[in-house]
Amino acid sequence: MKNFVKILFLCFFCSFFSEKTFSQEYTFCAFGGYKYQGLSFGELGVTYSRIWGGVLPFPMYSVGVGSEFSYLDDELLLGPKIVAEGNYVFVGGRLNGTYYLNSKKEEFILTPEVGLTFFNVVNLYYGYNFRFNDKVFDRISNHRVTFSLCVPLIFFL
After folding, report:
1. How does residue 103 score in pLDDT terms, banded at 50, 70 and 90?
2. Number of alpha carbons in the 13 Å side-chain half-sphere of residue 133
3. Sign of torsion, CA 80 84 86 91?
4. Which of 115, 114, 109 is nearest to 142 (CA)?
5. Looking at residue 115, what is its pLDDT?
6. Residue-level pLDDT at 123
7. Residue 48 and residue 9: Cα distance in Å, rounded?
8. Architecture of domain 24-156
9. pTM for this structure?
10. d(CA 139, CA 157)
11. pLDDT tens digits, one per residue of 4-39
């Protein structure tokens, strides 16, 4: 009985998700996630996505803004960012431009990421941080692992 209820819930979720999201050519999404790059970071933001085609599988791209946040030496470390992302069913890539700052220092880091995705709803990416000056925040490593969730805002309308 429990398996039957799980299957019904999964079918309802998939049909609701596909009706509300994949029928739209453009979608606004809220994303949140966790990333580890020597420090643990949280992330929140909004993306504007375009979906091509109406028959699965189809590619999708997104552009957005957001912010990463963590604590470094008992001080808040913020990272406002611009995001560009492309997905094709189960693979995806993302390019982040993040400007990390606290009350004493600042640094711009460009991070390309690649990894696994499920239609840009659940993402697991690996990225490499490219720095353009000396390493200002030395506790931020060059390697990054990101787990994020993206929820279409049409669910809240």
Report:
1. confident
2. 8
3. negative
4. 109
5. 96
6. 93
7. 28
8. Beta Barrel (2.40)
9. 0.77
10. 41
11. 555 544 444 444 444 444 445 667 889 999 999 999
Domain-by-domain residue ranges, the chain?
Answer: 24-156
CB 89 within 8 Å of CB 119: yes
How far CA 145 is from CA of 14, 22, 56, 67, 115, in Å, comes to: 27, 28, 28, 16, 10
**Residues 58-84, mean pLDDT to the nearest whole number:** 90
Q: Which residues pair with 10 in a beta bridge?
A: none
DSSP codes, the chain:
-HHHHHHHHHHHHHHHHIIIIIT-SEEEEEEEEEEESSSEEEEEEEEEEEE--SSSS-EEEEEEEEEEEEEETTEEEEEEEEEEEEEETTEEEEEEEEEEE-SS-EEEEEEEEEEEEETTTEEEEEEE-EESSS-SSTTS-SEEEEEEEEEEGGGG-
Q: CA–CA separation, 96 vs 38, rounded Å?
A: 17
| pLDDT higher than 60, residue 110 | yes
Residue 44's pLDDT is: 95
